[in-house]
């Protein structure tokens, strides 16, 4: 976990995490555990990670998820975290969601973000600073069966996602005792870089134009974060973020 700016513990923050990857391993390890020392890097900040509400319907699993700071991915849960007057709360949203997982493969820099603006509207309504996050290496943990748009596999995955709410990427990596095939992720590092907060003016009912302006600013800051740090993590110079 790498920080580029300090966060004021008297303030709440809304963070956009990119990319989703296959299993969002970087998001879970950094914000739901102390594996990367979050509390030392950001003292006074309590992290919360949003997860599909489907998983909170399963007894016992729900309690385990909540113990790690995970919250249901609905507007009411997000507002509850962001409106706490004492501050010190961070809400991380994996903006691309389950659909973005279908494009997760080594070397991919494609983000499902072009028309995802709900998190921006939420930040404006609460006057909460937006913080872009890019997790280098997230897409390198697994290989995925080729599923280009227009293929029967992609169509089937999309239909299943519409029905169940979760995507089903066909992925593989290594085994426990061998490296040729299995479901254990490859031993590849993840470097999660937390960007600088983007100030947001509070407005209860922002117009579409106001949301678009903040969204564009967020895209620019995310691109800037990626370009400034990609060389450190072996990303080719000619590779750039692609928004779909």
UniProtKB/TrEMBL annotation:
GO CC list: endoplasmic reticulum membrane
Gene Ontology annotations of biological process type: diacylglycerol biosynthetic process; triglyceride biosynthetic process
An annotated Gene Ontology molecular function: 2-acylglycerol O-acyltransferase activity
CDD domains in the cross-refs: LPLAT_MGAT-like
Pfam families named in the record: DAGAT
InterPro entries: DAGAT
Name listed for the protein in its UniProt record: 2-acylglycerol O-acyltransferase 2
Membrane topology field: Multi-pass membrane protein
Subcellular location per the Swiss-Prot or TrEMBL entry: Endoplasmic reticulum membrane
Species per Swiss-Prot/TrEMBL record: Phalacrocorax carbo (Great cormorant)
Alphabetized UniProt keyword annotations: Acyltransferase, Endoplasmic reticulum, Lipid biosynthesis, Lipid metabolism, Membrane, Transferase, Transmembrane, Transmembrane helix
Recorded family membership: Belongs to the diacylglycerol acyltransferase family.
Listed SUPFAM superfamilies: Glycerol-3-phosphate (1)-acyltransferase
